[in-house]
């Protein structure tokens, strides 16, 4: 059998002739923000002449002139320069896919050059230089991940990808209209519809999988926790495997909640030996490379030439399930790693993805990553028609395809098999002595609605610097909800203050046939909407939490144009630029906090758990500073995950006695109703 090792990395670095850039100590956040935005402005075209510093660097900078400017002595930059000079790099005006080994290798070469740069001037000069020589997709991916992970990128806000690379988010019809508007110099706003028709039941939930904010969350999560990450880049990605499970589990159960609200069954898992029931026509076009491939209904899986055979995927799955059954994973050196404990899910997540952290990728393969490629290629598995990669081969576009959720339900069930192998939580693991929840409530109405959202398409069309831009934008319908506040009355009967972790879940009460879920059946369908910390004083405590403050969500990042205007103004005036509210791209959009209700009102169980924060918290000061605000699914950059408990606790394990669990005074179960207004 062929062994699958999905990742492969190289090194790179940077250096001298630094035009008029300031020394790093004097570079303001506003100037850094301005540089990043100018580098990303119309990346398929040369750097604008009006951006003179960057333009000069792209022509006159010599990256290897001063190798002392790099933490690795210039190894990375010399390697990348050799690739460029020998003509081995991916051509410009060509599609880029992270799942392509060579494409990814080039992106990581540039990533390493940027993170090995000792100061901002060196990093930005390298970015300008290689921007003009490398593929546009390679450049964008490397710059985004470097800004996210490099210390010199701290506090910078990356613009929304749907405005930087709009072809991956807007449908073909809208892009064509944008080109027409540009050519005729006629401003335009174009309504963007979701794929499919009412003949396709999946169209009812297309608003979720095709939500551009959700798409950005998905790709941002994979940039925050990339499968290719090595700790030599600067730090360890704490609980990366477990977060891989949890972030995708939450996407899957949230999709199920949307399906129930639209009178659809829970999504069924994918089977390698059965047809892919739902076809998909993306109606999306690469900027360079043609249309995204379509897939008809009821396609049987075929081997993908040069990638994987279906029988090998079944063997990989069997090996993983055997590891769960035995309670251990076999490492590459033959040792056994115990997974029959609360940390086993982290090992299993690394194995299933598979990331560089996998203890034995040669044996356990790369189930998740290869499955994405296989699904993306089913329209042309043997390369007969030379089709470009499918939507499943890009994290930006993957959730558009209904098979994405079937694939992750399949993997989710493997994770559940592991979780069900663990013993239920004991009394000591759940209780919080002398602390009780006396009431849980909601201030405001839990009501969802659709709204129009406008985003810029200027960077989706070609032009020249000599031709004035005209306003061109797309308008898309998206789900939102009215603001609300969760409240909880908690009594602390201890003589002193106690530190508490408060977790809030909402769970669909009924299946598609109107049958009530038991708590043990329904716990795996629960959506975690918040987790936060509070100090409880002796006696009664009234806790409030606004929907906009939840630790699972992030606000909309301002438009590219707005960010650039703010940065330019701050640089011109010498004033400070504070964009800290948008420092994380990873996180569910705050308007998607609630699943869509229905006009009659859809019932959900609300489960609130208050547990001992002195035992739970892994980071100090969480009550006052939640470190970016979306830690529940995205952790804290470069730090320990803030919660020591397993993700999903206390609903992640089997519940043998529902009444016994709910008899704990620090747990509360109630019923809420989410309505939807047309």
Automatic annotation (TrEMBL):
Residues 401-412 form the Tyrosinase copper-binding domain. It comes from the Eukaryota. Residues 1-15 form the signal peptide. The keyword Signal applies. Pfam families: Hemocyanin_C, Hemocyanin_M, Hemocyanin_N. Keywords: Signal. InterPro entries: Di-copper_centre_dom_sf, Hemocyanin/hexamerin, Hemocyanin/hexamerin_mid_dom, Hemocyanin_C, Hemocyanin_C_sf, Hemocyanin_N, Hemocyanin_N_sf, Ig_E-set. SUPFAM superfamilies: Di-copper centre-containing domain, E set domains, Hemocyanin, N-terminal domain. One of its GO terms (molecular function) is oxidoreductase activity. Belongs to the tyrosinase family. Hemocyanin subfamily. This is Hemocyanin HC2. It comes from Limnoria quadripunctata (Gribble). The lineage of its organism: Eukaryota, Metazoa, Ecdysozoa, Arthropoda, Crustacea.
